[in-house]
Write a structure and sequence with these properties.
Blueprint lengths: L2 H24 L3 H15 L6 H49 L4 E6 L5 H10 L6 H10 L9 E6 L4 H8 L4
Antiparallel strand pairs: 1-2
Helix pairs in contact: 4-5
Protein name: YceG-like family protein
Keywords: Membrane, Transmembrane, Transmembrane helix
Length: 171
């Protein structure tokens, strides 16, 4: 087809669309339409709920109750977890306070425990002054990946290198 034929085809579609729209807007019987609208409104405003509506309402209320129960349970679990965390922190504080005056301390390292956690434990017992600095020291000197699990005795007189060698098993 040529370009001109496509133009005339497009114009024909445009005219057809305008005609359909004009019949739709101006060619309908408004009285028949209003009677249909009144009939639809009467059927949708019935005040007695059907069995299906009652079933859906019951399901909705059950779901709301279940959601509320789950929410309360999660809040209660969070409160219990916070209380337990507070209790654990208090116990650790008591333990660290009792160990601060000692010249040596026994440190337990779990399997796969990162250097940052070990440094925090050492800082709690005042064996090192800065946990972040010790973590960086371990990383920079290649000790971080070789920490072994177990229980180690750390003395206050040890320097960072001695502590690192002890907990990596190189001493």
């Amino acid at each position: 087809m040529s370009r001109e034929a496509y133009r005339w085809l497009g114009i024909g579609f445009l005219i057809a669309a305008i005609l359909v729209l004009s019949f739709k807007l101006f060619g309908t019987d408004s009285e028949a339409t209003s009677k249909k609208a009144v009939k639809v409104a009467e059927t949708t405003t019935s005040t007695t709920p059907s069995n299906e509506q009652a079933d859906w309402k019951k399901k909705y209320e059950d779901l709301l109750a279940e959601t509320e129960t789950a929410k309360l349970a999660s809040e209660q679990a969070a409160e219990e977890k916070a209380a337990k965390k507070t209790e654990t922190a208090a116990n650790a504080k008591k333990k660290s306070d009792s160990n601060k005056n000692k010249d040596s301390v026994s440190i337990s390292i779990g399997e796969g425990e990162p250097a940052s956690d070990v440094a925090k434990k050492l800082a709690e017992y005042d064996m090192i002054s800065d946990a972040d600095y010790f973590t960086e020291f371990m990383r920079n000197n290649g000790y971080e990946k070789f920490i072994r699990n177990g229980t180690y005795t750390i003395k206050k007189t040890m320097n960072l290198d001695d502590i690192a060698k002890t907990i990596t098993g190189q001493n």
